[in-house]
Specification:
With 363 residues, the protein is an alpha/beta fold. 43% of the residues lie in helices and 19% in strands. The longest helix has 21 residues.
Length: 363
């Protein structure tokens, strides 16, 4: 039986996180160890990229004790839509899932968000398990946020619904293209900036080749990064306070994703640009002396492009930011840094944001 790497303990829910290579072959045994009665049925939700690689291996870990179904979504951000959500709910109903069934979200963040939202709302909520297969999903699979997109903004339709467990088979990451490693690494870097600067040193010293990170380094980095999120989520499960720090880089990042078109940039690529912007904004608003040039150099070494896409207009980006969930009274609230590891949330005037956007887009 796999050992728990971490455990999330919040006010309303406790669940384990498993991190190791090869865990997909132990899925059924891990579920049995959750202390619940046997699930009446299992629905594996995956996508067209991950499904052919791993769905049958996950399914093979189960005996014939309960019905098992596989629902395969289109790969990509477009699956976080109302149309896909409806199709997924219809699939579950046709499979006669009941309140004792479980949904296994096998895939990246899109699959985890969509399957988690379906689990949160199917018959007013059933259990689900996160099985992330991307580095990016190490962030989204923990914390209980689920949701889908609206044409006017990302993740505007959703629910808090913690998983019964997170099973992170890091062996599955080695089929990812380098672009996806880079997307996920941005969230690790975010956790370094907001709470654990040691993570930034780990990446600089040990992540020398994104296509060949040793599995022990990968496992340790993921555990350390998830630990940051775990500590914050445990204190603020429903984002009433410090959990907002996890949105560092996301205010502009989400706006860029919406304006450039979902899928044009990866989520992590957009967040990397957003972090660069937030660091410079921290200097203007707080007088912080963050070394954004050193940040740029390290990010360029890792292959990031921190240029705001030319297709984006400053005024339109601002409009997207004002629709963000973190906005209040039409004021854009940014996560800023006093220094590495010391974040705070501040409303920022429109003119300040627009001036910096125009400055950045004319460089």
């Amino acid at each position: 039986m796999a050992e728990r790497a971490l455990e999330i303990r919040s006010e309303s829910h406790t669940y384990p996180i498993y991190i190791a290579a090869g865990l997909r072959h132990q899925t059924a045994d891990i579920l049995k160890g959750l202390g619940k009665s046997t699930f009446s049925a299992v629905l594996i939700v995956t996508d067209e990229t991950v499904g052919p690689l791993y769905a049958e291996e996950v399914a093979a870990s189960f005996a014939d004790e309960q019905p098992l179904y596989i629902c395969t979504l289109a790969a990509g951000e477009q699956s976080k839509s109302m149309e896909t959500y409806y199709e997924l709910m219809t699939f579950a109903l046709n499979c006669h899932l009941d309140r004792n069934s479980v949904i296994v979200a096998l895939g990246g963040g899109v699959v985890g968000d969509a399957a988690g939202f379906a689990a949160a709302t199917y018959m007013r909520g059933i259990d689900y398990v996160q099985m992330p297969t991307t580095l990016l999903a190490h962030d989204s699979s923990v914390g209980g946020k689920t949701g889908i997109n609206h044409p006017l903004g990302k993740n505007l339709i959703g629910a808090f619904h913690p998983p019964a467990a997170v099973i992170y088979d890091t062996e599955t990451l080695y089929t990812l293209p380098e672009k996806e490693w880079r997307s996920g690494l941005a969230e690790v870097i975010k956790h370094g900036w907001i709470q654990d600067p040691e993570l930034l040193k780990v990446i600089k010293d040990q992540w020398l080749d994104l296509s060949a990170v040793p599995v022990d380094v990968l496992n340790d980095t993921i555990r350390q990064s998830i630990q940051v999120k775990a500590e914050i989520v445990q204190l603020d499960e429903r984002e009433a306070g410090i959990r907002a720090f996890l949105n560092f880089g996301h205010t502009l990042g989400h706006a860029i994703e919406a304006e450039a078109g979902y899928g044009t940039l990866t989520h992590g690529e957009a967040v990397a640009i957003g972090m660069d912007f937030a660091m410079k904004l921290s200097g203007k608003v707080l007088g912080s002396s963050l070394d954004s040039e050193a940040y740029n150099e390290e990010m360029i070494r890792l292959g990031y492009d921190l240029t705001i896409p030319a297709s984006c207009e400053p005024e339109t980006l601002l409009a997207h930011m004002k629709r963000d969930k973190k906005a209040a009274e039409q004021k854009v609230r940014f996560v800023l840094l006093q220094e590495a590891g010391v974040p705070l949330v501040r409303p920022v005037e429109d003119d300040t944001i627009l001036d910096l956007l125009k400055e950045e887009m004319t460089i």
